[in-house]
Design brief:
With about 375 residues, this protein is α+β, with helices and mostly antiparallel strands. The chain contains 12 helices and 10 strands. The strands form 3 sheets. A 4-stranded mixed β-sheet has the order 1-4-5-8.
């Protein structure tokens, strides 16, 4: 059996690629990164393509597609280092509402998410990667107290999907009383992270499904999207390294003719390309083989994170000193891969969770 993309999937990915080539050149990425802000014009262009409503059912104005389709978009966003919200706003938050929201909550929020009119941040880091610095939220009587770190798609978020210490899920409006928002500066300025602190902040529980299971599904989807983003960013860095090796001359020869440089480029491709099938299968399993979904998502996240770091380092080395300059902008992809590695748990944490899933270690 051959596992490959359909013609529609190839056309969709190509449409996103061409849109980003036009709307998010390096100059636009640099501008957004320097402001550490969402590129609203790029977000609007993607919303017009239907990217923001990719997973949302057609009855709510979305496309009703699968996680594999979202993974193809995430890969393309990574390839362009697109400074737009996606993983939390267009994947994890819609999944929370689809599987745990009430009909009223779905009708109120999902159409706006699908149209790109509303941006949703997601705060589940403490439930996935462990509590740090006293972080964590407690829920009581429809109110939240505590703080959540590393809120994804934080900037300009209109609402947040947050998890409490008991794995309950809640909707919190960005202007809710008692909510304090603080931007967190990370190495990757093409995406935004933040901290929210709640002091008796009103919250709507998402309780139509099993919240713990929905939270796990959100985590799995997030892992796959981050792996896909790293896959795209890694291939961009390889392409840039190969192109540079064909142009840069030393001793009157292009450096790509030197065996050592050839080996570096070949090894990057040989290490990264197998990650594609791993990411595709994890995304496919999310919808088609639920029993395999969590474990394959963990493998995709952990392994692609490791390979991504190798590719980022090696591609920069191929460029020599130029690889560290802002002129080429290679550092945007280098840093994007670095943040992907740590979001929702680094490789070590994710492997621990994968071991616990298989009964090889105690859950932590």
């Amino acid at each position: 059996m051959e596992f490959g993309l359909s013609q529609d999937q190839k056309m969709m990915q190509d449409s996103v690629h061409r849109t980003l080539e036009r709307a998010a050149p390096l100059a636009r990425v640099r501008e957004a990164a320097e402001a550490n802000a969402i590129a609203r014009d790029v977000h609007k262009a993607l919303a017009d393509l239907g990217v923001t409503g990719l997973l949302i059912p057609e009855s709510f104005g979305g496309a009703g597609l699968k996680l594999l389709d979202a993974a193809l978009v995430s890969e393309t966003l990574g390839r362009h280092a697109a400074p737009v919200p996606f993983i939390a706003a267009s994947v994890m938050a819609p999944l929370a509402l689809i599987h745990a929201g009430s009909p009223e909550q779905q009708q109120r929020v999902l159409p706006k998410l699908a149209a790109g009119e509303t941006i949703a941040g997601v705060a589940i880091a403490e439930s996935v990667s462990g509590t740090r610095d006293g972080a964590g939220l407690t829920a009581s009587g429809g109110k939240l107290n505590g703080k959540a770190l590393f809120v994804m798609d934080f900037a300009d978020a209109d609402l947040f999907v947050v998890a409490d210490r008991a794995c309950g899920l809640h909707l919190v409006e960005a202007n809710a009383p008692g909510l304090t928002k603080t931007s967190l500066i990370s190495i990757d300025r093409t995406r935004t992270l933040g901290e929210i602190a709640c002091n008796n902040t009103p919250a709507e529980p998402l309780q139509n499904g099993n919240a713990a299971e929905v939270l796990s599904r959100m985590r799995d989807a997030g892992w796959v999207m981050l792996a896909a983003d790293t896959l795209g960013a890694g291939w961009h860095m390889i392409d840039q390294a190969v192109a540079y090796a064909k142009e840069r001359k030393q001793f009157d020869r292009v450096i790509g003719s030197f065996q050592a440089v050839k080996h570096m480029c070949a090894e990057m491709a040989a290490e990264l390309e197998p990650c594609r099938s791993l990411v595709w299968y994890a995304a496919h399993a999310f919808d088609a083989i639920p029993a395999d979904a969590a474990l394959t998502a963990a493998h995709a996240k952990a392994h692609t994170s490791e390979i991504g770091r190798f590719v980022a380092r090696t591609a920069t080395e191929v460029h020599g000193g130029m690889g560290m300059t802002d002129l080429l902008g290679l550092h945007y992809w280098f840093k994007r891969i670095g943040l992907n590695r740590q979001l929702l748990g680094g490789p070590e944490r994710v492997r621990d969770l994968a071991a616990a899933m298989q009964g090889f270690a105690a859950a932590s």
